[in-house]
Amino acid sequence: MDNESGYLAISFSHKNTQIQMREKLAFNSAESTKSFLQTIKTQNTHTQEIILLSTCNRVEIYIYTLHPQNTKDFVISLLAQIKNIDLPTLETIADVYVNQGAVHHIFCVASSLDSIVVGETQIGGQLKSAYKFCFDNNFCGKNLTRLVHFAFRCAAEVRNSTQISQNAISVASVAVKEANTLFEQHGIECKIAIVVGVGEMGILTSKHLLHCGYKILLLNRNKQKAVTLANELNSEYGEMVEVRNFSELSTLINQHILLFSATSAPYPIIHQPMVELTDFKRFWFDLAVPRDIQKPNIDNIVLFGVDDLQEVVCQNLASRRKNTTKAYEIVGTYTLEFFRWLQTLGVEPLIKKIREFAKEASLKELDRAIKKGFLPQEYEDSVAKILHNAFNVFLHKPTINIKKFADKEDADPIIEAIKAVFDIDDVMLINRYKCEYDTTLN
Q1: Does residue 339 fall inside a structural domain?
Q2: CATH code of the domain in which 179 resides
């Protein structure tokens, strides 16, 4: 592994890690996330900046480090320790990417090429939230901001240049589609669904259910949050959402056919003793990681987990193969462009270019003055020296200031603005340094 400073990505995803292990690795609270990141920043001096992305399909750590090998070893060892996982096992399953490989991987994640459902847009919001949390808590700065900002640009290009997100489906929509198919196969006409949880997955699931004409019984430990969501959904879809008390969960799951659970609880909320035998078949969708539902031992309950939905998704991949190929080409191009852009951010080439502009303008005007007869030819060398000294004096203070700007966290937009003013190539204006405000993936 190259040990020069640069980008590092450590990935545990649906591609390499079983759901049981992802459950153990998941970070389900701001406190646990902050504690983990703070330990890395304080105990591993090579780690400069860090972002943790924890979703139902992946736990990934993005780092700007002075020593990738050392940082990788430290992070995986710390994960094994705090999550009580065998270290050799964790080292075996981890996918590790460095510099160009890390950038390419993160661009694929942002562009939804690494998702269970290729083309879904939910990952964009998840990445923004992870970045914002880490930026606001001083875990990341200029280097990872550059990377995430460019990742958003890459994702927007993938979306705009391909049809990969046309009729894009999230895990939530795949679950609802599967439920619809099952209802049709079994001739079920009563379209009522229990939805537990009002987080992002719960909201997406509810919207897909309402779009398909389902009535929803909505439950959440914090009832007021459920009421707020129900009011929003009812104003848009009509009075189709009814809020029920969380204490009614054990009763409702034995009265209705369809259940979707997507809470952030660190342990199952539906246990074996809660489940009663019924004379009708039930379909339960556990969209949470860690899982919300303890596998029932009753034959007439069909339980789907996040990984089970991948089988449904695979049926749609053939038609998307052409678009996926094009999308990977875009990611490859953006990866190369990102590193080229990084090279343009050095202030020395910028200062040199501005001085070249000043010199060219001076000599051009001197040549014109001699040709027009405004200045004798024999004065050319002397006047050239005077002009050279003049633009040196003029550029002295701006040069000092540009070098000072380069050491600041918000250097990029300042340097890019200067490049734009002087019409220097390779300009990529960053309108806002905090790129979580970028809306291209909404």
Answers
A1: yes
A2: 3.40.50.720
What is the token pair recorded at 307? 């990984």
How many CB atoms are located within 10 Å of the residue 325 CB?
10
CATH of the domain at 159: 3.30.460.30
Q: Are 117 and 174 a contacting pair, CB within 8 Å?
A: yes
The answer on 235 and 135 residing in a single domain is: no
* Per-block mean pLDDT, blocks of 10 residues, the chain (442 long): 84 89 90 95 95 91 95 96 94 95 95 78 87 94 91 91 68 86 88 94 92 94 95 90 96 96 92 93 92 91 85 58 81 91 74 86 88 87 88 86 72 77 64 39 30
- Domain boundaries, position 354: 349-396+410-435
Residue 301 domain-assigned (yes or no) = yes
Residue 1 located in a structural domain: no
Give residue 118's pLDDT.
72
- What Cα–Cα distance (Å) separates residue 91 from each residue in 86, 96, 215, 253, 316? 9, 9, 46, 40, 33
pLDDT at 442: 29
Looking at the fold, whether 156 and 15 belong to one and the same domain comes out as: yes
Query: So what's the pLDDT on residue 432?
Result: 39
**Residue 320 near residue 158, CB atoms below 8 Å:** no
> To which residue do tokens 């380069």 refer?
406
Give residue 12's pLDDT.
Answer: 96
Query: Could you tell me if 286 and 330 lie in one domain?
Result: no
> How many degrees, rounded to 5, is the angle at CA 52 between CA 46 and CA 56?
150
The answer to whether residue 281 sits within a structural domain is: yes
Q: What one-character-per-residue DSSP string does 230-269 give?
A: HHHHHHHH-S-EEE--GGGHHHHTTT-SEEEE----SS-S
| 43 and 188 inside one domain | no
> Annotated catalytic, 56?
yes
End-to-end CA distance of the chain, in Å? 36
Considering the candidates 56, 108, 134, 435, report the single residue annotated as catalytic. Answer: 56
